[in-house]
Amino acid sequence: MDLRDKTGLLIDDIPEMRSAVRIQLADAGLEKCDTARNVKEAIDRLAASRYDLIVCDYNLGQGADGQQFLELVRRKQTLPLATAFLMITGETGYEQVSTAAEYSPDDYLLKPFTSETLRTRLERILEKKGALRPIYKHMGERGDRMAALAACDEMLAGKTRYSLDILRLKGELLLAMKRGQEALALYEDVLQQRSTPWAEVGKARALAAAGNVAEAKAGLRRALEAYPNYLAAYDSLAGLLEKTDKAAAQQVVEQALKVAPSTQRQRRIGGLALDNKDFGRAEEAFKRTVEKDRTGFFKSHDDYAGLAKSCSEQGKTQEALAAVKGMGVHFQRTPELAARQAAVESQVHTKAGNADAAQAALAKAMAVMQESDLDPTTALEIAQACFAGGHADDAKRIIRTVAEDHHENDQVFARAQSVFAAAGLSDEGTVFLDATRKRMIKLNNDAVGLAKAGELDQAIAMLQEAADRLHNNAQVSINAALALLMHLQKNGTDAGRLEQAQRYLLQARRANAEHPKLAEVEAFYRKLAPPDAETAA
Amino acid sequence: MDSYVAAAIHDAKNALHALDAWLAEARRECAAPALAQAQAVAGRVSAQLVELLALYRADQGTLRLAVADHFVDDFIADIMEELGPAPAHIAVATDFAAATAIGAWAFDAYQVKFVLLDALRNALRHATGRVRFAVAAEPGGGIRFTVADDGPGFPDEVLAGAAAAMTETSSGLGLLFARLIAAHHATPAGHRGRIELANAGGASFSLVLP
């Protein structure tokens, strides 16, 4: 493979290392290579140019590391899957880099290394990326999972060196498309031939998706005995335990943290410890997330909110208020920030017995919510402040809206349940949230039933009312578009309805571009829309 | 403590890498056999440092392998590259036909590479004229790497299973490391890695990974 026509980005905070590796890259044939000194520069570079390859040192200074950077850019999809990522590390970072977290580098290389070794590794990962390109091009935010799956099958039908990699991608796709049984069969097939950590974890996830949670947990525990540094197994196990036994979940994340300390896991420990009323541990964990990362790229409002609450629960009111203030210093001024700060401040004051200050802060948070469409985390924080301040009806009203708007999102529901739990209303929360979810499922089912029975106008009216109210509910938006399109199919073209359908599809895509039903209805739209119509996506 | 030991070893490895580069340059200027020997020693010490770190971590209970899929043919190519040319009087026969058929296998390539390099360097040291390096699929699952030579074979106490039999030419640490890395390779179904030693016209070392 000729590396001369490839473009690369080298990220290293130490100037001498940067120039040394830059020379080695040129020796290896990669001459077109930009450099970045830190996370910020790297993110700017990624926004401006497209690279075939990223070469990143694990240690990036300022409390940031290459793994955090990789997770950030892959999660935000600023780094396309087709771009290869090579992590360079010393003995100290090796254990962390080689732990196979959710987002792993394509390869890692231990220092010191020769230019020849570097060239061999680069060629291998670029060759693999090239081979898998037909699949990658259908994955990602604007991707089409059906097409990606078809590409997997096509490649598997031929002769390929990368069949295991393709099976791994196919398994992930099937799980994301909620085709758990097929995913389970795939993983079992792989495991018949060989034991490999990703297939063990995939199998457990497929079992859990099929409702067999006990077997999934047992499988993950066995996987962790065999592969004790496989972080994805800890994360999956903690995710399953979190639903029923948060103390056990906290223990599993503590173990993962020993394997590889990361901001994200510190945050998770903090959240679980708060729920488990282990406030000292929560404070310690959130303090680390706040203090370790001096770049600011990996912090979240949650860290400061968590720190404030864990301090407040221990009677450390001044520290708690300082954390609320700190939140304002470290983030861009947005309605979410203002509302979150006010809602947390209100809870701190309530806990300290300052009813007037609590009420004033809560009023401020509510005022922001009146004006803006807040994200679910912020809205739920306000609900928690309402409960704390004795305004249960307001709290429930907020939670109802959030839950209706996100009825397919387990994370939002788990958070909402935590809000009830913090108010000492766990049982009521379970019933309330369950009823909300059932109501939304019924609404969708009833409307689709009406549409299928030919009562299209009625179905459209029901779904439009809901979709216009619940902008973040992808399923409702998709069904509203579907009903409109069925109307068009039955009664002929109607520019107004077509435009409405397109608008709902866009709303659905914004809410959840990866919704399993979206691609199908978008295809239906394209079939009915005239060639010059606006695209759905 | 772990990270300090790792950092110290990292620094020492960097120094050895620099030494290796100087020796390579010296060899370009003057092809003295002693320089080649010195370069080989630098490589060996670097490998021993990695073994030392693994032994330390095993003792502390913090040794965790990084098991992931690796193409067996690529892995072998890396080992041969790192091993470098054999001494002129020794013929190295390789049998990697099975590697392509096996495709990728899940193991800790970093640690296993050191186990096999150690075995190969030992074989080259003890061989009189031949070394054989082969990979095969293990019946019933697993892969087997074999390194054999035509030298005097393992001493009896090593064959009898003494963990760290001290001999004049070896501390036995290499075998201890190999056993450790083999045993840390496990599957959720309960299969474990192992090493097998035999004398058959010389020493034969096998590493079997589940």
Description:
The complex is a heterodimer of chains A (about 525) and B (about 210). Chain A has helices spanning about 15-25, 40-50, 65-75, 90-95, 115-135, 145-155, 165-175, 180-195, 195-210, 215-225, 230-240, 245-260, 265-275, 280-290, 300-315, 315-330, 335-350, 355-370, 375-390, 390-405, 410-420, 425-450, 455-470, 475-490, 495-510, 520-530, and strands at about 5-10, 30-35, 55, 85-90, 105-110. Chain A is mainly alpha-helical and about 525 residues long. A five-stranded parallel beta sheet of chain A has the order 2-1-3-4-5, sandwiched between helices. In chain A, helix 13 (about 265-275) packs parallel to helix 15. The longest helix of chain A is centred in the last third of the chain and has 27 residues, at about 425-450. The two termini of chain A are about 35 Å apart. The mean pLDDT of chain A is about 90. Chain B is α+β, with helices and mostly antiparallel strands. Chain B folds into two domains: about 1-60; about 70-210, Histidine kinase-like ATPase, C-terminal domain (Heat Shock Protein 90, 2-Layer Sandwich). Chain B is built from seven helices and seven strands, in the order H-H-E-H-E-H-E-H-E-E-H-H-E-E. Chain B has helices at about 1-30, 35-60, 70-85, 95-100, 110-125, 155-160, 175-185, and strands at about 70, 90-95, 105, 130-135, 145-150, 195-200, 205-210. A five-stranded mixed beta sheet of chain B has the order 2-4-5-7-6. A two-stranded antiparallel ribbon of chain B has the order 1-3. In chain B, helix 1 runs antiparallel to helix 2, helix 3 crosses helix 5 (about 110-125) and helix 5 (about 110-125) packs antiparallel against helix 7 (about 175-185). Chain B is globular. The two termini of chain B are about 30 Å apart. The model of chain B has no long low-confidence stretch (mean pLDDT about 90).
